[in-house]
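Field log, afternoon session.

UNIT: design team B
ACTIVITY: writing a sequence onto a fixed backbone
BACKBONE:
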């Protein structure tokens, strides 16, 4: 099963879709009487920040697939810069704007950011898929044309005579009309006169 960036973002959104499952100050935490902080792969971790939810999505969906994981963060960063360009100039560096959105702007801004980043990732993946489909179709068409027109034993094929019988005709058997030199000279002369 192929896991995409949009799948990771969707999963992260589902993890923190309830404001009670989201936290603003910690990467992730476990809800118990102590409010103990834990790592994202801890099975009982139930409350996550934005980055913690992305990390948990990677652990659950695509362990060891760091490419999609990092691409999910990049998708969030680009969406965040587009949403809040003025804030983005002030909070640069490692996850600075994502952390600012998570801690200061709150859960609704986080959900909006995830929605935009996921929609963009899906749109990009659909464009890539459509381009791949188009390339596959072009190659299949080229193969079909080549398979119908070229036979390694004979060279170029052509239907011989009746349309019901498609017999290969060797390239040497094609009839090329003979052109007389006088015909060529007459045509050249006629063109010069005009």
């Amino acid at each position: 099963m192929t896991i995409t960036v949009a799948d990771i973002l969707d999963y992260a959104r589902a993890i923190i879709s309830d404001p009670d499952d989201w936290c603003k100050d910690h990467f992730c935490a476990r809800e118990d009487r102590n409010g103990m902080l834990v790592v994202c792969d801890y099975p009982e971790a139930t409350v996550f920040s934005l980055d913690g939810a992305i990390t948990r999505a990677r652990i659950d969906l695509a362990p060891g697939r760091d490419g999609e994981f990092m691409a999910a963060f990049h998708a969030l960063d680009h969406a965040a810069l587009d949403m809040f360009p003025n804030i983005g100039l002030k909070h640069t560096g490692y996850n600075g704007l994502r952390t600012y959105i998570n801690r200061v702007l709150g859960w609704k801004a986080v959900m909006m950011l995830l929605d935009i980043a996921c929609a963009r990732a899906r749109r990009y993946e659909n464009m890539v898929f459509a381009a791949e489909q188009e390339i596959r179709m072009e190659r299949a068409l080229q193969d079909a044309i080549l398979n119908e027109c070229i036979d390694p034993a004979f060279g170029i094929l052509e239907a011989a005579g009746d349309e019901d019988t498609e017999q290969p005709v060797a390239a040497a058997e094609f009839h090329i009309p003979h052109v007389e030199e006088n015909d060529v000279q007459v045509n050249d002369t006629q063109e010069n006169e005009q």
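LOG NOTE: Confidence is low (pLDDT under 50) at residues 157-162, 168-176, 183-191.
NEXT ACTIVITY: expression trials, pending approval
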